[in-house]
Amino acid sequence: MALRKYAGYAWNLVSLVGMILAVTATGLIIGFLSYEGITGVEKPYLGLMTYFLFPGMLIVGLILVPLGAYIVREKRRRHPDVEIPPFPRVDFNDAHKRHLFLFFVVASIGFVLIVSVASLKGYEFTESTTFCGELCHQVMEPEHVAWANSPHAKVKCVECHVGPGAAWYVKAKISGMRQLYAVATHTYPETIETPIDNLRPARDTCEHCHWPEKFYAGRQKVFYHYAPNEENTPREINMLINIGGTPKSEHHKGIHWHIGQEVSYIALDRQRMSIPYIAVKEKDGTVTEYMDTEKPLSKADVAKAQKRVMDCLDCHNRPAHVYRSPGVEMDEAFAAKRIDQGLPYLKKTAVEILTRPYKNKEEAKATIAKELPEYYNKNYPQVAKAKAKELAHAVTVVQDIYNRNFFPAMKVSWNTYPNHIGHFYTPGCFRCHDGKHKTAAGKVISKDCNMCHTVLGQKQENIPVTSAPVKQFVHPVDIGDELFKANCSDCHSAGGQDVPGGEKHAKK
């Protein structure tokens, strides 16, 4: 048989299996790369096969071919009637060997090209958001969905979690192997813990785009809210955020002063909610220490405790993985006119349905689709009939809100991870700015709201339209001195609901 004679020692089961694997893998790699190049579609499991599984098949196949030939050759050498030298003779005058050599050269060049392309594309694939967020679908779904709906949705995961340079790339891949093992063996935590251990400092990543030295003095922002009452009454707070400080004022330093100067602190918990000790290194090199008067640390505790130098992520701890409360989501939907403000008690009713516990997303979606129309059919039948289209669209919007912010499979909801920006749903700024951190000389870290922002105006159902412009925040309900004594999060953190501005209960 000519083929058998031409194959020589490679005519054996091991080598033939290797040839089949190599040829099949080569065809699949070329086919899948062509598909991706033509369609532009990048899928996690397709990439896993194209850049890892098939190249692995190709390498294994090409190892099996010479291995099988070597085994056969050694077996024949042991036969007493056959004289085979220890090493193959290469004689280019022999047409058969010359053809084998040329085939080997061409095959080697093809192998190097295919493996090189697969390796480069494989590296690129491991740096993609598809690989980071979609490969381990259930585990990373909450963070991936939050990222896709965040202001950083065009920034790749690796740009923040790894950054440039080989050292952190190696650290990230070693950590990734541990995570891959945890996913494969189902030993990962039910809820991913944050903050991430050994995360690269923000100065190596965030500050490549965000330049602290160039933060401007202030930023005007209008916060749009809607009351959880029958009219879904619009509310507005026009505010100046003192990002870079207010020149020629007592608050001239501004919010970003915290990273313009070396500030270190001690946290008693993983999520850095309890901060009993703060130290500020002054320009002259002296250190000013502030201690929580309610839970002070001893000098020995301070000396042995781990101190963290403050950076961007101590306030912007959820920059690319933002979960929003149901109340905020409903406010944004009203402001963007995605839902009809004319549906009575829509905000209150939707928030109440959203904040219930559900076993899975399917149950939540079914409950929203059932109970939201039922509420209007029962309490506002004429509205339900006249605005049937708007009500059906509202159901879709509320379901989308749930899909973006609630993940029962991983026990994650909008308030699982505290967001330290602001102070409405979590203590945030008030972890330090609570009026209780003092120096030995009695200097206090102030709780003055005007340090960070100034109210320029406010519209609300309990503020007369004809009144003078508001210069200090007015609460929708008069809560007296508690406005200054308590933290916003003391009331708002649990369900993410606004205080019902004068309307105690919606119709049942």
Could you provide a short overview of the structure?
The chain has helices spanning 2-7, 13-39, 44-77, 95-126, 129-134, 137-148, 157-161, 166-184, 202-205, 257-260, 299-304, 326-335, 346-354, 361-379, 381-386, 388-405, 482-485, 489-492; strands spanning 219-226, 234-241, 263-266, 277-281, 287-292, 308-309, 437-438, 453-459. The protein has 508 residues and is an alpha+beta fold.
Number of strands: 8
Chain-averaged pLDDT: 85
Intertermini distance: 88 Å
Strand order of the largest sheet: 6-3-4-5-7
Shape type: elongated
Q: If helices are DSSP runs of H or I spanning 4 or more residues, what is the number of helices? A: 18
Descriptive overview:
This protein is α+β, with helices and mostly antiparallel strands and 508 residues long. The protein contains 18 helices and 8 strands. The protein has helices spanning 2-7, 13-39, 44-77, 95-126, 129-134, 137-148, 157-161, 166-184, 202-205, 257-260, 299-304, 326-335, 346-354, 361-379, 381-386, 388-405, 482-485, 489-492; strands spanning 219-226, 234-241, 263-266, 277-281, 287-292, 308-309, 437-438, 453-459. The strands form 2 sheets. It has a 5-stranded antiparallel sheet with strand order 6-3-4-5-7, with no helix packed on it. A 3-stranded antiparallel sheet has the order 1-2-8. β4 and β5 form a beta hairpin. α2 runs antiparallel to α3 (44-77) and α12 crosses α16. The longest helix has 34 residues, at 44-77. The relative contact order is 0.09. The model is unreliable at 499-508 (pLDDT under 50).
Topology, element by element:
Layout: H1 2-7, H2 13-39, H3 44-77, H4 95-126, H5 129-134, H6 137-148, H7 157-161, H8 166-184, H9 202-205, E1 219-226, E2 234-241, H10 257-260, E3 263-266, E4 277-281, E5 287-292, H11 299-304, E6 308-309, H12 326-335, H13 346-354, H14 361-379, H15 381-386, H16 388-405, E7 437-438, E8 453-459, H17 482-485, H18 489-492
Helix pairs in contact: 2-3, 3-4, 12-13, 12-16, 13-14, 14-16
